[in-house]
UniProtKB/TrEMBL annotation:
Keywords: Membrane, Transmembrane, Transmembrane helix
Signal peptide limits: none
Membrane-spanning residues: 12-35, 41-60
Membrane topology: Multi-pass membrane protein
Record's subcellular location: Membrane
Taxonomic lineage from the root: Bacteria, Pseudomonadati, Verrucomicrobiota, Opitutia, Puniceicoccales
Chief place of localization: membrane
GO cellular component, one term: membrane
Protein's UniProt name: DoxX family protein
Domain of life: Bacteria
The keyword Transmembrane is annotated on this UniProt entry: yes
This protein's record includes keyword Membrane: yes
Length: 83
Protein backbone atom coordinates (compact mmCIF):
# COMPACT_ATOMS: atom_id res chain seq x y z
CA UNK A 1 0.00 0.00 0.00
CA UNK A 2 2.85 2.36 0.71
CA UNK A 3 3.87 2.25 -2.97
CA UNK A 4 0.33 3.03 -4.07
CA UNK A 5 0.08 6.05 -1.80
CA UNK A 6 3.46 7.27 -3.03
CA UNK A 7 2.13 6.97 -6.62
CA UNK A 8 -0.80 9.17 -5.58
CA UNK A 9 1.66 11.68 -4.13
CA UNK A 10 0.36 11.18 -0.58
CA UNK A 11 2.52 10.92 2.55
CA UNK A 12 2.61 7.88 4.83
CA UNK A 13 0.58 9.73 7.48
CA UNK A 14 -2.36 9.90 5.06
CA UNK A 15 -2.04 6.16 4.43
CA UNK A 16 -2.15 5.46 8.16
CA UNK A 17 -5.09 7.83 8.68
CA UNK A 18 -7.11 6.25 5.87
CA UNK A 19 -6.25 2.79 7.17
CA UNK A 20 -7.50 3.69 10.65
CA UNK A 21 -10.69 5.19 9.22
CA UNK A 22 -11.36 2.05 7.17
CA UNK A 23 -10.66 -0.15 10.19
CA UNK A 24 -12.99 1.90 12.41
CA UNK A 25 -15.79 1.83 9.81
CA UNK A 26 -15.40 -1.90 9.22
CA UNK A 27 -15.50 -2.49 12.98
CA UNK A 28 -18.62 -0.31 13.23
CA UNK A 29 -20.19 -2.37 10.46
CA UNK A 30 -19.57 -5.56 12.45
CA UNK A 31 -20.90 -3.94 15.63
CA UNK A 32 -23.96 -3.00 13.57
CA UNK A 33 -24.98 -6.65 13.73
CA UNK A 34 -25.87 -6.03 17.39
CA UNK A 35 -26.57 -2.29 17.19
CA UNK A 36 -28.42 -1.80 13.88
CA UNK A 37 -28.62 1.98 14.25
CA UNK A 38 -24.93 2.38 13.32
CA UNK A 39 -25.02 0.15 10.24
CA UNK A 40 -26.12 2.89 7.83
CA UNK A 41 -23.43 5.28 9.08
CA UNK A 42 -20.70 2.66 8.75
CA UNK A 43 -21.86 1.50 5.31
CA UNK A 44 -22.08 5.09 4.02
CA UNK A 45 -18.64 5.91 5.39
CA UNK A 46 -17.11 2.85 3.77
CA UNK A 47 -18.86 3.52 0.47
CA UNK A 48 -17.53 7.10 0.39
CA UNK A 49 -14.02 6.01 1.38
CA UNK A 50 -13.95 3.31 -1.28
CA UNK A 51 -15.37 5.66 -3.91
CA UNK A 52 -12.41 7.93 -3.18
CA UNK A 53 -10.10 4.93 -3.63
CA UNK A 54 -11.62 4.10 -7.03
CA UNK A 55 -11.28 7.73 -8.12
CA UNK A 56 -7.64 7.76 -6.97
CA UNK A 57 -6.92 4.64 -9.04
CA UNK A 58 -8.55 6.19 -12.09
CA UNK A 59 -6.70 9.49 -11.67
CA UNK A 60 -3.28 7.88 -11.82
CA UNK A 61 -4.37 5.60 -14.67
CA UNK A 62 -3.88 2.35 -12.78
CA UNK A 63 -4.86 -0.79 -14.65
CA UNK A 64 -8.54 -1.62 -14.16
CA UNK A 65 -7.70 -4.75 -12.16
CA UNK A 66 -6.26 -2.57 -9.38
CA UNK A 67 -9.61 -0.77 -8.99
CA UNK A 68 -11.73 -3.92 -8.83
CA UNK A 69 -11.30 -4.67 -5.07
CA UNK A 70 -12.25 -1.13 -4.04
CA UNK A 71 -15.12 -1.01 -6.55
CA UNK A 72 -16.45 -4.37 -5.36
CA UNK A 73 -16.36 -3.39 -1.69
CA UNK A 74 -17.90 0.00 -2.52
CA UNK A 75 -20.75 -1.78 -4.30
CA UNK A 76 -21.28 -4.09 -1.34
CA UNK A 77 -21.29 -1.19 1.14
CA UNK A 78 -23.74 0.73 -1.07
CA UNK A 79 -26.01 -2.32 -1.31
CA UNK A 80 -25.93 -2.70 2.46
CA UNK A 81 -26.82 0.97 2.82
CA UNK A 82 -29.76 0.66 0.42
CA UNK A 83 -31.07 -2.58 1.93
Amino acid sequence: MREEFEAYGLPATVMLTIGLIKLALATALIVGIWIPSITAFAAAGLAITLLAAVIAHLRIHDPLKKSIPAATLMTMATALLIL
